[in-house]
Amino acid sequence: MTADTPTTATSPLAVLKGLAGLRRLTGMYPAGHPQIAQKLAELDDLVQQHVQGGHPLRIDVIHGEVHLDGVSFRDDSQANGQLVGELADLGVHSLHIRPGVVRAELQAVAEYLWQLKERPGGEPVETELARRQVVHVSLGRIVELDTRWKAQAWPDAPAGPLDPAYAESLLRTQQAFDTVASGRPLDALTVRDLVQLLIGRVARSHAALGQILAVKQYENLTYCHSVNVSMLSLLLGRRVGLSDDTVTALVEAALLHDIGKTRVPLEIVKKPGALDKRERKLIEAHTVFGAEILVEVQGLRPLTPTVALEHHRGVRGGGYPDLGQGVAPHPLSQIVSVADVYEALTGARSYQDPTPPEQACLVLARIAGEQLNTALVKAFVDTITFFPLGSLVRTDRGETGVVVRTTPGDPLHPVLSLVDDDVEGPLGHVDTSARDGSGAYLRHIVETRRPQDGALDLTRFLGPAPAGA
Ligand SMILES: [Fe+2]
Ligand SMILES: [Fe+2]
């Protein structure tokens, strides 16, 4: 389980193992001991390999499973299970390392983790790390029973002005989900009206799509997530040529794919730390609960319960619930799965910062073939592009702008509406796909920026109805 792992070049387990080993050695030997130096060099090599391209290394142990850059890194071998257990005992659930990290910082982190065990109490982790001159490593949400290590609190819903149709769909979906959560039956007519609102108005609004596609600085609970997944599914469904009627069925199924979570206690749905076996079983049961709830509702489309049941199944038959090997999920379930993963990555969680779209696209590409349908992932990335509508981005000329139009066939070079440092604007448009006389691009986008305080009023940049889309 090292470099030959097919899904990624960096093994998060090797990094965790290196850090755990280094921590133990710093406790056993005096500083400067050759054993420490050797272990430190090994760990440093591993880390530098990953961060040298400018990519941060994000390892999280969520629900007992190791995630690299937000994606589950499956390995069920006993030795690794023990390692994860050992780190969990230590309190390590999350390790983020940024480019620029130096060896001394890794050593300081290992020393800190050793002292933490011996001397629990003390200053908050950020203070302790800063005191040790560690600036490129953070240990987020770590000690579960220790409230000093607070999870970051994100708002529960989008902040700032929303497209009116999008706002209305969120409100009505919340009401529908509350109805089911309180044990009352879901009404198929309510669902039908909502689907009409989503297809007829939300999907036609550039401002709404921008708010759904760009980084989401809120912890989207089930109803926001559901609306977003239904709109992303619609974009993908249309892209692959589904008929209007099938798109309607898809939007309904996507909207209700997580309805089973209304039967799972909220504290478990939101719990950022490791889940025990019972809690994990309950979370996974939202698929079966959802199908059970939906088959009881007269008047829904026949595939709606199927998608709820299957949306966590992989195309190769893995995932949950266990429906037997060799049973590929229905194509509509496969579409919802792609939208679901993208939506979850680009949204905030108490245990993770939102992933920018360009990185989320790379994550989708990494799990295509195994978990997700490769052709659907390609079509999805083609549709939303690396810098989707509504993204706040920076160019290599130091300009900041909001993506207001994507360029067909050139997903890296959209049209921007420029803003100043305080995100005030618009200050005019630039087309980043423009080239000079020799054919070279005049500018490139360097990165997605997160708007300060989460409030970027997209309605000022993107209209409620798309022009010629
Ligand atoms: Fe789900
Ligand atoms: Fe979901």
Can you describe this structure in just a few lines?
The protein has 469 residues and is an alpha+beta fold.
Q: Quick check: average pLDDT? A: 83
* Topology-level CATH name of the largest domain: Hypothetical protein af1432
* Overall radius of gyration: 23 Å
Span between termini = 47 Å
Full CATH superfamily name of the largest domain:
Hypothetical protein af1432
CATH class category name of the largest domain: Mainly Alpha
Ligands bound, unique? fe (ii) ion
Description of the structure:
- By secondary structure, the chain is α+β, with helices and mostly antiparallel strands.
- It has three domains: 12-138, no CATH class; 164-384, Hypothetical protein af1432, CATH 1.10.3210; 392-460, no CATH class.
- 45% of the residues lie in helices and 9% in strands.
- The chain has 17 helices and ten strands.
- Strands 3-2-1-4-5 form a five-stranded antiparallel sheet. It has a five-stranded antiparallel sheet with strand order 9-8-7-6-10, with no helix packed on it.
- Helix 1 packs across helix 4 (103-118), helix 9 crosses helix 15 (331-346) and helix 10 (244-255) crosses helix 14.
- The longest helix is centred in the N-terminal third of the chain and has 18 residues, at 34-51.
- The model is unreliable at 1-8 and 141-151 (pLDDT under 50).
